[in-house]
Amino acid sequence: MKKRESKLDRKEKELIDSIESGEWKSVKNVDDSIKKFAQYAKNTLKKDNRISIRISKQDFIGIQTRAVEEGMPYQTLITSVVHKFVTNRLVPKVYKKETVRSKAKKR
């Protein structure tokens, strides 16, 4: 391994090894492939439909709270949850709310 490669992390080294071992194949028309995959990405990320829903105030406050905890706008959180649901990637996660009483016990 070359001297400059010693600063690479494990994933970078694995990538170099896979390229050098011939696992990667050249694409015949790179420009067309880039355009095609860029369009796939654009279509995937396009948000061209609006919906209006009614939810309880308590649920809305809960969504806003979780969005703040995740560091994102609540609209983005809702979009993410819906997307994960329709693509069968929504994984149940136990969410423990810390109460004022449990915080006081820790002190």
SSE topology sketch:
Layout: H1 10-20, H2 30-45, H3 57-70, H4 74-86, H5 100-106
Characterise the protein shown here.
This protein has 107 residues and is mainly alpha-helical. It has a domain at 56-107. The chain has helices at residues 10-20, 30-45, 57-70, 74-86, 100-106. Helix 3 (57-70) crosses helix 4. The longest helix has 16 residues, at 30-45.
Question: Any descriptors?
Answer:
107 residues, mainly alpha, 57% helix, 0% strand
Brief write-up:
With 107 residues, this protein is mainly alpha-helical. Helices cover 57% and strands 0% of the residues. The protein starts with 9 loop residues before the first helix and ends with a helix.
* Average pLDDT number: 84
Taking all Cα atoms into account, the compactness measure Rg is 23 Å
Total beta strands: 0
Proportion of strand residues:
under 5%
Gross geometry:
flat
Q: How much helicity do the residues have?
A: 55-70%
SS summary, helix count: 5
Sequence stretches where pLDDT stays below 50 over 5 or more residues: none
Q: What structural category characterises the helix and strand content?
A: mainly alpha
Main beta sheet: strand number and arrangement?
none
Distance between the termini: 52 Å
Quaternary structure type: single chain
Q: Which series of helices and strands comes N to C?
A: HHHHH
